[in-house]
Amino acid sequence: MTMMTDILTYSELCKRKSFGDRLQYLQLIGRKHESPRFMSNPFYKSRIWLATRDEVIRRDAGCDLGILGEYITGPIFVHHMNPLTQFDMEDWNDDMINPEYLICVSEDTHNKIHYSQKQMDLVERKPGDTKLW
Questions:
Q1: Is 53 helix (H, G, I), strand (E, B) or coil?
Q2: Is 132 helix (H, G, I), strand (E, B) or coil?
Q3: Of the four listed, 46, 91, 96, 131, which is most buried by Cβ atoms within 10 Å?
Q4: d(CA 123, CA 29)
Q5: What total number of domains does the chain contain?
Q6: 30 falls within a domain
Q7: What is the extent of the structural domain holding 80?
Q8: Partners of 77 in the beta sheet?
Q9: Within a 13 Å sphere around the CA of 66, how many CA atoms are in the beta-carbon half?
Q10: Whole-number Å distance between alpha carbons of 120 and 133
């Protein structure tokens, strides 16, 4: 996370009220990142990560992008807003377990953050809205 030029934070994410604005804030398109899976997979099984993960899920009430009411019905991913680097893993960057840099997301949202190639036109739903998109 120390290699990123723009550090993303939970506090800044929460200033964005809509799902679409939060998703856009987190999207990695055009941002250089790596995925040191050979190092991160053991980390994601560690006691310290599992405890941190539980803390973030409680904080976000299991809601997608931390938006109350956007409950995640499938697996809950706790996403590093600033992708981990090999340096983070080798030198143990405490930011890896700092909730300020983590957010709950659904699998679909996680895939959109990492792999979506274009800005999506999201329709914000409102109570009483019965029309399909």
A1: helix
A2: coil
A3: 96
A4: 21
A5: 1
A6: yes
A7: 10-115
A8: 105
A9: 26
A10: 14
Identify whether 5 is part of a domain: no
Cβ count near 45 (within 10 Å): 9
Q: Could you tell me if 26 and 109 are in contact, meaning their C-beta atoms sit under 8 angstroms apart?
A: no
Predicted TM-score (pTM) of the model is 0.80
Q: Are the CB atoms for 106 and 57 separated by under 8 Å? A: no
Confirm whether 99 is domain-assigned.
yes
Could you tell me if residue 123 is inside a domain? no
CA 13 to chain centre: 10
Tokens of 42: 């053991």
* Helical (H) or strand (E) element with 80: strand 77-80
> Mean pLDDT highest for which of 18-32, 71-85, 107-121?
71-85
Q: Which two tokens stand for residue 36?
A: 């040191």
Which of the 8 DSSP states describes residue 105?
E
